[in-house]
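From the shared-data thread, chain only:
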Amino acid sequence: MLSLLTFVSPIIGLVIILVYMAYYFNKPIPNNIKKLTIPIAICVAQLGYVLPPGASDLASYNSQLWMYKGSLFATFMSDTEKLYLRDWLMNFVGRSGDEKLLPYIVGFVTYGVVFYILFDMVDRNKEFLNTKEVALMTLIAIGIVLPTTAIGNVRNVTAYMLISFTTYRDMVQKKRNILTLLLYIVPIYLHGAAIFLLVIRILQVVIKRLGIWSLSIAIFLPTLINLAFAHINVMPGDLLQTGIQKAYYYLNWTDGGWATAIQNSTSDKISRVYGAFFLLFVLALIILSVKKKDGFRIIDQPMVSYVFFVAVCALGCLYITTGAFWRFEAVVVMLCPIYLVPIFKMHTRDIRLPIEILTISVVMIFIVNIYLFTKTYNEIPMAGDYLVGNGFVIVRDIIRAVMY
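Structure, as tokens:
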């Protein structure tokens, strides 16, 4: 019922969700917390819908929509990159006649995954957690990389999170079936860079064994990319070769266009400095949070080595001028329950001070990000559009796309 109400009027749903969370703030975690997943995803999707068309990468995608409105089969045949899921998505949005449907879909899918994982992890471990810890994980997931930033990116972060969702199904939920196998493959056809998350999934076993020594990968990542590109002809599969080409291109794109503009960006400098601090802090927490008596290590917990490897790769991308760093960082912050829930379950005095430091830092960067957001966007019209937003517009768009 809450999902339907939120779809009809996102602002009413948002108010109910906030009241619900405030009511339970100092109470035990409710048994039905997972029911908030879709309503919150709809609220974030509506935020995507009210984003200005020129926000981040949206301007580029909106200018290309006309190219995808024709025959879907013809689009598939002419796509040399073989990004068929991207083609379908752009074709669907183009046929709807509403460019704002694209960020709506991206917001719903990306944050549907984020809050599904969060609330499923909480539900599995609620006897060890409290609502303040859930609030902290929620703030990390949406406060370090704002939803407006992730949605504005459109494809890359979404593809990363779809691979991560599949990894969660596989490693945590143990749902090892044909659907899981397909979900590993499909995101690669949304964005070629998703192949790297799939490689991380495969190699995470090695990272678990290497532990702290895996940090050396961050130092040598640029060298590894250049080496892979030099021997690209022996790399297996067109998709992997395309991914290596993209990585090489972004690694060496240091001047001109966006690369030049971003070097003078205050928000990018803040993002990199805090992001590096956060990632190093998280890696230290994972490595140092152990119970020697029980032989308990955080990195041995399901999927933690996967997130650990993503964090290492993010640090390796600090060398890259353009946005590769924050895209990997976004995965680490969005998957914070994977490593924080096992840390919270330890309930040792040793973790209290680090968690307090982490909490203060997250609150501070969230405030900074909101300030930077108000300097980038005109938030008053956006708020007005959000207040009157309703799901009937989305239904209209979907009908148009289907009937086109």
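DSSP finds 22 helices and two strands in the chain.
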